Amino acid sequence: MYVNNKHLRVFRPLALLAGLLLLTWAPFFAGCRARPLDTKTAEETKPVRAAIPAPRFISIRDGEFALDSFKGQPLIVSVQGVGTPYLSENLRELDDLGKELASSGVAVVGLLTAFSEEEDPGAFAQTVQVSYPLVAAVPEYVREVAQVRALPTVLLVDERGVVRKQYAGDLSLSELKADVQALASPH
Fold it and tell me: Are 26 and 135 in contact (CB under 8 A)?
């Protein structure tokens, strides 16, 4: 059935003309972007967040200490969950990195946490040999105070105790090493 609609006869040529104009001018408009007149330099790296509150811990092997006793030097804080995959390997890799960076004044601390009654950070710490202090941290501290949402997490803390970078999950040691060297170098 044929419908004779005079409105369609008028609209169809207009739609075709608009389509042709759009197709021919689209590449021109795609290349036109507003650009700033001047380029700004990157700002200094801002802290991820303020300092971590530093309660006193009982180190599993080394006695009592507080995280704020490391103020004045860069600090790598490794937060690990007992029972997480590759825990021993992660701790040993950080131990090697800590030994390599010790001459530049960088310290390493390991916080071990357990999320079930069966996991014992103290017993686990006796099985792994690292040169830095390992402490047992309650899950509430890890979640609420240190604001760690994934395990493992590594925090890079500057000499004033401010968290400069947080690495969640698998960590590239070369990235961490570069960030630590940049933080430890004189400004």
Answer: no
Let me know: does 91 contact 80? Beta carbons within 8 Å: yes
**Is the sign of the CA dihedral 162, 172, 185, 108 positive or negative?**
positive
Give the CA count within 13 Å in the CB-facing half-sphere of 1: 2
pLDDT in tens, 29-47: 544 444 444 434 334 555 6
Mean pLDDT of the chain: 75
pLDDT category at 85 given cuts 50, 70, 90 is confident
CA–CA gap between residue 50 and residue 62 (Å, rounded): 27
| pLDDT tier for residue 175 given thresholds of 50, 70 and 90 | very high
The interaxial angle of helices 173-184 and 87-101, nearest 10 deg, is 30
Cα-flanking dihedrals φ and ψ of residue 44, to 5°?
-60, 145
| Residue indicated by tokens 């042709």 | 20
Q: Which long-range contacts (CB under 8 A, 24 or more apart) does 114-120 make?
A: 114/81, 114/82, 114/83, 114/139, 115/81, 115/83, 115/139, 116/83, 119/81, 119/82, 119/83, 120/82
Cβ atoms within 10 Å of 4's Cβ, excluding its own: 6
CA separation, residue 62 to residues 51, 58, 87, 109 (Å): 24, 8, 20, 12
Asked whether residue 185 carries a pLDDT value surpassing 80, the answer given is no
